[in-house]
Amino acid sequence: MTEKLLSTDHPIRFEPPADLAAAANVTEAAYARAESDVEGFWAEQAERLTWAEPFTEVLDWSDAPHARWFADGKLNAAYNCVDRHVEAGRGDKVAFHFVGEPGDTRDLTYADLKDEVSRAANALTDLGVGSGDLVAIYLPMIPEAIVAMLACARIGATHTVVFGGFSAEALASRIEDCRAKLVITSDGGYRRGTPSPLKPAVDAALARLGGQSPVEHVLVVRRTGEYVPFDDATDLWWHDVVDSASPEHTPEAFDAEHPLYVMYSSGTTGKPKGILHTTGGYLTGAAYTHHAVFDLEPDTDVYWCTADIGWVTGHSYIVYGPLANGATQVLYEGTPDSPHRGRWWEIVEQYGVTLLYTAPTAIRTFMKWGREIPDGYDLSSLRLLGSVGEPINPEAYLWYRNVVGGDRCPVVDTWWQTETGQMMISPLPGVTAGKPGSAMRPLPGIGADVVDEEGRSVPNGSRGYLVLTKPWPAMLRTLWQDDDRFVETYWTRFADLGYYFAGDGAKKDEDGDIWILGRVDDVMNVSGHRLSTSEIESALVSHPRIAEAAVVGAADETTGQAVFAYVILRAGDGNTGEALIQELRGHVAKEIGAIAKPRQITIVPELPKTRSGKIMRRLLRDVAEGRDVGDTTTLSDPNVMALIAAAEG
Ligand code: PRX
User: Fold this and answer.
1) For residue 413, how far is its CA from the centre of ligand 1 (angstroms)?
2) pLDDT band for position 4 (50/70/90)?
3) Which residue of 3, 14, 144, 366 has the fewest C-beta atoms within 10 A of its own C-beta?
4) Final residue of a structural domain among 517, 542, 565
5) Is residue 447 part of a domain?
6) Among 517, 550, 566, which residue terminates a domain?
7) Residue 275 above 50 pLDDT?
8) Atom of ligand 1 nearest to the CA of 312
């Protein structure tokens, strides 16, 4: 069975549920419409927004790869996400069911959100923040984070949200790079049942910048009530300045190409890239894909995206897309295991969540904890499940579909990036069959292909590089302060063809459907054979004893690279010795082929992961190749590498 599931030649298929297909927001016709006139198609999608001044030109690509979408149109992003729903008589509709980790809850309607955003916009204006200024937001998952983002958008200030798990050092480098004038933070947030401070990291970041600091004020939300040092010269309490501000604020219209936000993301060098997204095209791309891929019914759906707003998924699929569409959402502050491992399922049951969007790493964690936990809750409200951020191995997909989705909910595996701003490759739930492990086909209006070294489209059944062949509305416009790096990173590899190089490897199966193989820098070459780290990981995880696996290619004199695997075991029969290692090697050989057999398999207690859950293979490569382990500052748990080194012996 497993062999069959893992085979991309004859993959298992789940057809769209008939009732969903019959009433889907987007049907097969959208592909043809977009194919016949892609600019006309995107112009129609832009009409989902309310424009203060209509655009006359859809795309200006004359200065490629610098795109301008809807450039002569004007709009206000916050108006589109909030006010227009209130004006349409939907002010009483819940925008967010907020669930704090300690159990406090708060519902915000669209009318509440409008008042809060307006107050915050007035307060920021009083602090001298306006169009063109940069504001750094360093907050936990509380409603004020969203209010802060929308308040910036409302007054034309560009926000840069820094994930609350980042260190003072990371925060300082971002503040410095974007010259933020204001930092919005909180005393702290709750994590695993205890208050965890944030403001001290802001203080440390500013101290580090010293006289170079561009920051004029720090606005502090009170969340935990714990003591925080307060500097009366710069620091202000949110409740003092925002709560007393007027809830009346007239939004100004900005150019469609006005900078909405900068999101820092890791590249191949040590310096994070400041990815710039602008207003009209970004909002169009986020709103359309949220409507299409989640088949959103704003009047009845309760949507929950579990990402942190510190990442692009939180920007596009908690804030801008869903709010532009008038959705009702759940916003949860904490971790899945606090105060117990059923917390997520309890929330799904309590709020009747219908659409759930999460990451494979979370699903694999739940698998490790066992199905008895979700089985203890009523999850029958769910109707569609989404996955994002990394390749989803077929086992995790099937578990998600079966245990969480009761075998009735389609799973949409959505491929996109911080750079793309919007989903790019994904099934449409009413149209496309789901194949566990495949992101399937480019969404309507999106051009994607898998190409060889020369940029030639590979035939079905082959692997290559994933490229995007035409501009799309939510595409990044440049890298902040580093346009050369923008051109060089994404547009030089296939410059003659004008393709955007995504940095991912992919394959087309016999039907032409796309399977993402992971970052190209994580693709190995063993004796001239291309092997994907994630493919071998998927094979390992399909073994009943393996809970999680990370694979790296380590340099080898004879074969180019050799496969090294690091695995976490499930509880089992206690066999952790050489016999098990041989069994696992044999299992990989059986699933993929002898060439993929790991040279070495090390059983470890934990894997090195970033705070967003991505495995840091670079560090494992260091261990595998016998080097000192490099920079570990972005690890969620810095002790993990010592444990792995000990396991290696
Ligand atoms: O390698 C791909 C992987 O995540 C990368 C983008 O990461 P980031 O910019 O942090 O954005 C994450 C949220 C969109 C991609 O280059 N990735 C993302 N989604 C998928 C994926 N890999 C496989 N399948 C996906 N659905």
Assistant:
1) 10
2) very low
3) 3
4) 517
5) yes
6) 517
7) yes
8) 13
